[in-house]
Specification:
Layout lengths: L38 H4 L28 H10 L16 H8 L8 H10 L14
Length: 136
């Protein structure tokens, strides 16, 4: 069964949620500079917890007591801890958070968007010289 692309975590990009994190998130582009709580922006939260990064939608961003945690802040803290999976049995072999973030267009904490683009361009294979014909 193909996973529903609308069911990815807006914090880490994991595509394993059972429903969208917020009712209207599929139609909205995530604003990573927005301050929580997020229900006003994205609709009713699912209260599901991401089994990758551990963020609970509707709880972490709008706790009954304490300070709300933004998507970006949670991601930064989780990455500083070494990205331990909340449910480590689901972590796929060879998994890298940078690939997951890039795949969903989520900005990596501490890096400006233009820095991330420049880094990904540097990792591409160089273009062959002379139309692909090697000099002998």
């Amino acid at each position: 069964m193909k996973k529903d692309e609308r069911n990815h975590c807006p914090v880490c990009g994991w595509n394993g949620l059972t429903v969208p994190a917020y009712a209207n998130l599929a139609e909205a582009k995530v604003d990573y500079a927005a301050k929580p709580p997020y229900a006003a922006l994205y609709g009713e939260p699912s209260f599901e917890m991401c089994l990758c990064c551990g963020y609970e939608f509707g709880y972490h961003d709008d706790p009954e007591s304490g300070k709300p945690v933004s998507f970006s802040e949670h991601l930064k803290n989780w990455m500083a801890e070494g990205t331990p999976w909340y449910d480590d049995a689901r972590e796929p072999g060879g998994w890298r958070i940078q690939d997951q973030l890039r795949g969903k267009g989520i900005p990596e904490p501490g890096r400006a968007q233009h820095q991330q683009k420049a880094k990904s361009e540097k990792t591409r294979a160089p273009k062959p010289r002379h139309g692909g014909i090697e000099n002998e």
